[in-house]
Fold:
Amino acid sequence: MADRSEILRPLRPELVPVPAAGQLGICPVCHSSRNDDFATCYPCAQAAYLDPPAVLPVTMSVAGRAVHHHLRMYKDSPDDATRERLGTRLAALLSLFMEKHADCIGEWDVVTCVPSPARVALAPVVAKLKRFYQRDEQLLRSRAGTGDRTLDPDQFEVARVLDGVQVLLLDDTLTTGAKLFSAVAALRAAGATVVGPVVLGRHVQTSWGPSEEMMSWLGERTWDEDRCARCDGERREVGTFF
Structure:
């Protein structure tokens, strides 16, 4: 089997660095664009009552581009070989990120994925990582009849009491954050400390003005495996902090 760098090679040029918090136009919770008149983006403001943690995206996922395609088709392609190929690339990306940024993510006891009502799409990707071997446990299950686009901790059942357990929470894509932040709240209610959460891609829709502006400067930058949004996120003006 090809090594990780070779597996990741077709996707690497398409990866977009993630903006750092602490600058105008960037949401400190999800690291995507926001209107400068508000402290966070609108979806994160809607989730404020749940006290959402700062999310750690691996890359930005721009609508219609290669990362967005990978994050959709690794689970939805009708072709088995395509799903396997794209899923393996995403696993290589997640493996690299976990290796390079373990200190940024923090200590954790068990890793779990955010499920949808129909499946746990990221589970086959997570299963490819040696780092997660025997530390992977599906702690969340969607309740029957609930949607996944509304902020509601009750949309999830938690498998067991998690008092004192540090749970690394993973998801493939963050769009509105409703499902992810509801999962965080459900795990916390069961006693867990949520670590991360790590998402492979923060979705970006460039038809919105602030996102178009954000991508105008991000698009000129190169994704660097040694940098993440927590340790050294991208800044519009290098050397500035506000």
